[in-house]
Amino acid sequence: MTETISGEGKLRIGESVLDVGFTVPIGKYSPLSMLPDVQRFADQITNYAESKVKARGLKISCSKGCGACCRQMAPVTPSEAQHLAALVEKMPPDKSLQVRERFATAQAIMSATGLQPYGHPDEDKAAYRKYGLAYFKNGVACPFLEDESCSIHADRPLVCREYLVTSPPAGCAVLGSGQVRKVSVPIQVWAAFGRSSTLDRKLKWMPLIESLAYTEAHPAPEQERTGPQHVEAFLREIQGMADRGEEN
User: Residues 194, 205: contact at Cβ < 8 Å?
Assistant: First the structure.
């Protein structure tokens, strides 16, 4: 049995203080080990942003059955890709096959555009945006979308947890409508997790639809950090974002 260690702390965002906690393996381990706690932290950040919206008399309009945002390109980190691939692997055979076919269909649609998802949200915003717009224009549905709802909602990617709007849901389905009023979050948790997972702080990512192919092509590498070191790196990233007042 893997020996773990737990720790708690506080993060100041503006005038608010959030409690954060992590339980990770003591030895060298993949950043995937801290994903459940990072997901909970992302939900805390979203709840914080939602409380600010409600204080202004606004209401979050996102609800089950509104899958427009599930046709936007969702960037995921390598660790999240591994997590999603594991979810598909654990599904009943018929279900797993069905989802795998959706992944393949989505990849085929985007391959036909001739665009490569190499634009970086930090370093090449133009290419990143170009790929994202093409993705949306082609109506590529997330492989986990069923009946216009997320079939893995509890395990959905970090970036999906950060997307909320106060505008009418119909506006999200129209590219360039100018109707979408997105809720700003004080920290991009998915980006902080991605940067903290690499020694050089480079944000590595891929479109969600590449998750299965990436995981198959990249077996888990030898780990260079312990669980606590992963947590420390992540906390440095989010505190830096909070101090700089970054929002998306």
Answer: yes
